[in-house]
Write a structure and sequence with these properties.
Layout: H1 3-7, E1 43-56, E2 63-75, H2 78-90, E3 110-117, E4 120-127, E5 134-137, H3 163-173
Antiparallel strand pairs: 1-2, 1-3, 3-4, 4-5
Helix pairs in contact: 2-3
Region (Disordered): 1-31
Biased composition (Basic residues): 7-16
Length: 176
């Protein structure tokens, strides 16, 4: 599908798509089973998202969140593209063998790298809180982060130390 032309001029959704699982709006918690095989981006943008309360959790324990875009997408400059491409190649399932990880209980922003290969868009969503989880979406407008299933992408949680920092630097350096 020609996602880039179809969504133009937007490359990032106003709200991240949500999954139908009983979670709190973050996406699948299970680790990805394998590392993704992502193609080299031709163009890329960074988008920033803030948590919005969408109601009580179905089991009555806490809240469920959605993710609203803050600001406009910012194009990644050529000076940052090689570093981000290198980080995409390092995305891997979390190193901990235990299914339970110890993470902080804070809540912050989410950052998404949206990149194009031809007219196809892929999103890489990174949490700037808790364990710093990373989740893929093979259609940033329709597929919830962590539920990607197209060739090269994987479902579940990934990690790449330093990825959020690179996204934040690219955001700061870019023009909207």
């Amino acid at each position: 599908m020609d996602e880039l032309t179809h969504r133009s001029p937007r490359v990032c959704p106003r709200r991240l798509p949500r999954q139908d699982d009983p979670g709190h709006g973050f996406g699948p918690e299970g680790h990805a089973q394998i590392a993704p095989l992502l193609a080299t981006p031709e163009r890329a943008w960074v988008c920033r998202y803030a948590a919005v309360d969408v109601g009580p959790h179905p089991d009555g324990q806490g809240r469920t969140f959605g993710w609203q875009q803050r600001g406009r997408a910012r194009a990644v400059g050529p000076d940052r593209m090689s570093a981000l491409t290198g980080q995409l190649a390092r995305l891997a399932p979390p190193a901990t063998a235990q299914p339970e990880r110890v993470c902080t209980a804070d809540l912050g922003e989410r950052w998404m790298l949206v990149y194009a290969i031809g007219t196809d868009l892929t999103g890489v969503v990174a949490d700037d809180f808790s364990c710093g989880d990373i989740r893929l979406t093979d259609d940033p407008f329709r597929t919830a982060p962590g539920e990607a299933t197209q060739p090269g992408t994987v479902a579940g949680v990934l990690e790449a130390p330093g990825f959020v920092g690179l996204l934040k630097s690219a955001w700061t350096d870019a023009r909207s």
